[in-house]
Specification:
The structure is a single chain. The chain has 363 residues and is of the alpha+beta class. The protein has helices spanning 3-43, 58-62, 108-111, 240-258, 267-289, 300-328, 332-361; strands at residues 70-85, 90-101, 112-114, 117-129, 134-145, 157-166, 174-178, 184-185, 195-207, 224-235. Helix 1 (3-43) runs antiparallel to helix 6 (300-328), helix 5 (267-289) packs antiparallel against helix 6 and helix 6 packs antiparallel against helix 7 (332-361). The chain starts with a helix and ends with a helix.
Length: 363
């Protein structure tokens, strides 16, 4: 009978589909992870150009007279991160910022600004000035815009970059010198859903690709400033959020697969369980989508929810094939064996796929 080879071919096709999807999804997630890590390293590398940002004008650096350049030792102590919102694409930070320098021509405390953000509050806490050293300590609250790459959410990691520039003096006149030993993140800082696993402070030049309409400047002129960058690396601390997000989806698939244990004679219960699981998975997908910003990126959440919906659909299709076996052959034993084989294929394939792609997304 040609029916048995067809059934075997169907199960083989489903198995192959899971394996192909597994490799495709894992490769995309690993590529996304690698690109994100390269971007993070470039952000904190004083010599590297960042993707999507204006490259540093080498002419501005070559023409610097270092004997005339004023060094300002600068440090940052992060006291609070009261808010981080992926849907709103921003985060808020409360930090101490200090400057220590000697030249009286500049006032870094008055001229600094936060790149990609706005200062909500700025308070001078301490000022010290003698014949040798000038020192100022500020407490600053700032809201910073950030595009969060959510391709690997909720197994993602991010770099929160706090970037300070002087608005008046270019790098030829003033350069920040990071106070590495004094800069830190308070142990009290907590970010719901994430843990801080590293922080680094560096100085790197930053050029702007415009002369801002100033007729005194030559065409192609790029203003270059010293930029202090404090990078705070965060990541998902464990699997709790992942499980909470997809528990409903996983439960829906499990309930659907249980339909293979319902005898083909009970057509109503068998299909009602699967259809109910399908709509439950759709509802769970809607809840998950509200946790991340709307982007054109396809990522881990799309892979999990998409694979779940496809699994339920294919399970219903396979159940329909089981009923046709009974109509064509009347062999209840063949129906039973096909159901058990299908249950194992779907169960192993679905579990394996989710384990592999979750691991591929994790750091």
């Amino acid at each position: 009978m040609m029916l048995k080879p067809l059934l075997i071919a169907w199960l083989f096709t489903v198995s192959t589909g899971y394996i192909s999807a597994m490799y495709f999804m894992a490769d995309m997630l690993q590529t996304s992870k690698s690109n994100a890590q390269q971007e993070h390293r470039a952000r904190l590398d004083p010599t590297a150009d960042e993707t999507g940002r204006t490259g540093v004008d080498a002419r501005a650096l070559d023409g610097i007279d270092h004997s005339e350049q004023i060094s300002v030792e600068t440090g940052i102590y992060v006291d609070r991160i009261p808010r981080l919102s992926m849907p709103d694409t921003n985060w808020t930070v409360d930090f101490y910022l200090w400057f220590r320098w000697s030249d009286r021509e500049i006032s870094p405390g008055q001229n600094f600004h936060v790149i990609d953000g706005e200062i909500l509050k700025k308070e001078l806490k301490t000022r010290y000035d003698d014949s040798v050293t000038r020192y100022e300590l500020y407490r600053v609250t700032a809201r910073i815009s950030k595009f969060f790459n959510v391709a690997r959410f909720p197994r993602d990691d991010h770099l929160l970059a706090l970037r300070i520039e002087d608005a008046q003096n270019q790098i030829g006149k003033m350069i920040f010198v990071p106070d590495v030993s004094g800069s830190a993140v308070s142990s009290r800082v907590k970010i719901p859903g994430y843990e801080i696993y590293d922080s680094t402070i560096v100085q790197k030049p930053h050029s702007y690709k415009t002369r801002r309409g100033d007729p005194r400047l030559a065409e192609g002129y790029q203003a270059t400033y010293s930029q202090l960058v404090y990078g705070i690396a965060i990541k998902e601390p464990g699997w709790a959020l992942y499980i909470k997000m997809f528990l409903g989806t996983f439960a829906s698939v499990a309930i659907c697969l249980l339909s293979f244990l319902i005898g083909p004679a009970h057509t109503g219960p068998r299909f009602s369980v699967s259809i109910g699981a399908f709509f439950a998975a759709i509802a769970s997908t809607y809840v998950v989508s509200r946790l991340i910003p709307k982007t054109g990126t396809v990522g881990l959440t799309d892979f999990v929810t998409g694979a779940s919906l496809v699994t339920i659909f294919l399970a219903v299709l396979t159940s329909t094939m089981t009923l046709k076996i009974g109509e064509v052959t009347g062999e209840a034993q063949l129906q039973r064996r096909f159901d058990i084989a299908a249950l194992l294929v779907f169960l192993i394939g679905y579990i394996s796929l989710n384990i592999v792609i979750a691991q591929a997304a994790s750091i």
